[in-house]
Amino acid sequence: MRRRIRDGRVPVVADPIEPVSLRAGELLLRPWRPDDAAAVHRICQDPDILRWTTVPSPYPPEAAEAFVVATAEQWASGVTASWAVVDTADAVLASVSLSDLDRGYPELGFWVAPEARGRGVSAAASREACRWAFDRGAPKVLWLADVGNEASWRVARQVGFAYEGRRFAECGHRDGHRTDAWAASLLPGALDGPVVPLPYEPFTPLQDGEVTVRRWRETDAEAYAALQNEPSVARWDAATPELTIEAAAARLRGAHVEDWMLGRVARLAICVDEVVVGDVQVRTPSYPPGTGELGWSLRSTARGRGVATRAVGLVRDWAFGGLGLRRLLAGVDVGNTRSRALAERLGFRHEGVHRSEAPRVDGTVHDGLSFGLLPTDLS
Ligand SMILES: CC(C)(COP(=O)(O)OP(=O)(O)OC[C@H]1O[C@@H](n2cnc3c(N)ncnc32)[C@H](O)[C@@H]1OP(=O)(O)O)[C@@H](O)C(=O)NCCC(=O)NCCS
């Protein structure tokens, strides 16, 4: 949870809320107790909790003691409902809270102990917390997370939250700087609805023994910046400022994840021996349905060995197979003979010329060649 900043707002006096416990299958959501402080202190040493929430960092024992006491006061103030999520042995697995209960709608927050992750604990517990909020008349529940917290977004969508967009400078950080948040809302009718599969999933890395094609990761920032900045790659695009490693990391954890989660572009890294050497994307416009546009680039050090042909071929097969597309498109600058040859090796057929379509880094604009591919072209 990323708390909305309330500076300057007039405080609202709310009715106290009687602390309640809720069941979520085998899990119990119960009010925090003073003797939970040791567990909270241990769990809040986790780097992901320190990175993605506003808990103090470093997190001393006193912070945990203050937290469990404060939660009792928050129930009494009618502003925040805060639960320990425990298993059948009463071991603390997670935290779930609803803040801003005195306002138009509450905001959901959660963390899970590292050893309890991967079992849907926060989704199950959050679902029951949201149900409780709706039973009390909340019209919706808000979820906010730092841009980049994909695990949190995945939990929210499991519960039924629908992505709304980015909120600029929504997240205040410990050092005072602010960053954007992802925002999503849960409406009562979506709570028990089916979870729609993500557009590009299930997805497992594509491999053929020589190359691997996998999702880009934030930790690839250096390789991503090097690829984008390489003159022989950048020359085939409009001039853009050099991509810093910091900006590359922001793109990988932000826009790339949004594009993936929303089914706009599947952006994939080409790896040889676990070293990133290139990029392949499948852009999937909502219209015309069933079509995708492939794009690719490769570091010059990896060229001339068939790496791009193998990698883009794997993505082509995934696009027609797992993704179920019926037509692929590729656009190539008229002067980019290597790229044109790659398209033709993969079976693409030249379909037309788009006049004055392809900008180059030197400011000139050239014709673009369009290539199309249907699964039947390959048989
Ligand atoms: C977010 C958090 C609560 C999720 O824990 P959890 O409920 O056990 O959830 P899971 O570990 O099952 O992960 C949920 C999903 O995220 C995915 N995921 C997990 N870690 C991930 C990561 N580092 N990057 C991308 N996806 C990740 C899982 O594969 C799973 O995907 P799926 O639902 O599509 O199968 C936990 O990671 C956490 O406590 N993080 C730190 C605190 C935090 O970020 N709180 C939310 C603040 S807004």
Helix-strand blueprint:
Elements: E1 22-24, E2 27-31, H1 37-43, H2 47-52, H3 61-77, E3 81-86, E4 92-99, E5 107-112, H4 121-135, E6 141-146, H5 150-159, E7 162-172, E8 178-186, E9 206-207, E10 212-215, H6 221-229, H7 231-234, H8 245-253, H9 255-261, E11 265-272, E12 275-283, E13 291-298, H10 307-320, E14 327-333, H11 337-345, E15 349-359, E16 365-373
Parallel strand pairs: 5-6, 13-14
Antiparallel strand pairs: 1-2, 2-3, 3-4, 4-5, 6-8, 7-8, 9-10, 10-11, 11-12, 12-13, 14-16, 15-16
Helix pairs in contact: 1-3, 4-5, 6-8
Bound molecules: coenzyme A.
Task: Describe the model.
The protein is elongated. A hairpin with a 2-residue loop joins strand 1 and strand 2 (27-31). It has an eight-stranded mixed sheet with strand order 1-2-3-4-5-6-8-7, sandwiched between helices. Strands 9-10-11-12-13-14-16-15 form an eight-stranded mixed sheet, sandwiched between helices. It has two domains: 22-190, 3-Layer(aba) Sandwich (Aminopeptidase), CATH 3.40.630.30; 206-378, Gcn5-related N-acetyltransferase (GNAT) (Aminopeptidase). By secondary structure, the chain is of the alpha+beta class. 36% of the residues are buried. The chain has helices at residues 37-43, 47-52, 61-77, 121-135, 150-159, 221-229, 231-234, 245-253, 255-261, 307-320, 337-345; strands spanning 22-24, 27-31, 81-86, 92-99, 107-112, 141-146, 162-172, 178-186, 206-207, 212-215, 265-272, 275-283, 291-298, 327-333, 349-359, 365-373. Coenzyme A (COA) is lined by residues 1-2, 48-49, 52-53, 110-112, 117-118, 120-123, 145, 149-152, 154-155, 158.
